[in-house]
Amino acid sequence: MSESSVPSSKTSVELPQATWSHLQRYPALAKFIKYAESLPPVEKLISLNLVVLGSVNEWVSESSNSPRLVKQVVAAGKEGAFKLDELVNFLVFKEGVDGLLYSWKSHSNVPGFWLVWFFVDYVANISNTLLREFLIKPLHLQGSAASKEIGSSGEGNKVVDSSSLPHVAELSSTTRSVSHEIQSKVKSNYIDPTRDLAKEKYDAIVKPTTEKLQSVYIDPTKSKLNETYQRFTTVYENNLSKSESVPKAIVSTGLDLGNATIEKLKASRETQADPKSAGVTTN
Fold first, then answer.
1. What is the per-residue DSSP string for 136-171?
2. Taxonomically, which superkingdom (predicted)?
3. Does any domain span residue 236?
């Protein structure tokens, strides 16, 4: 099947062609496609599909009455279809079928254990490509400098034996690099800002409250407790030295402290009552 007979040339609708064009590089398959296309039912089916696609494209993408959201969805679908076409063409045909044929010729068309190494490296190639397309690019990471872009040719990464597994080495390097970059991004974009924000909130809200509690309640209470303890110790030791009996000293200390507390309360009440009395006399 020639380039002039690619389906997109029969309509204004742009269709993915990477895989379709690559299939025509295989002589036997190209001959079969050309024969199948010449059959009347197949030709009518292709024409019908192209007409339908052209009509849908005209009604949805090119019509001014079509909602903007619908156009965006259709455009995203087209972009996804083209990327999927390139991905399939790259992984299945370029790196898969073409790579296998190249290695087959390199080994004089003789099967062997090299097929196992080829399969291992091919799986690593798929993993590395998917990692790059769906993680490295969307997150704008650097990845591995040796990563090969989709659409690039290159017969340098061909498997010869177990000592030559280029995509396995590339996957290992990419994985380490991506892991380090993700950790760095998480630290710089999330952990550090969150820590700084938490410290800022602490300094603005929690720290002043803590300092106020410390100065207004905790420190005065601690001072009073220490003062009470010292007074109790002094009175107790004085009473103990007089009576030389622990029980009597404890009882005497309790009475003394109780009397001192009552005297303080009386003095406090008198102090509060004096301003009121002075106010009444003045009037």
1. ITTTT----TTPPPTT---SSS---STT--HHHHHH
2. Eukaryota
3. no
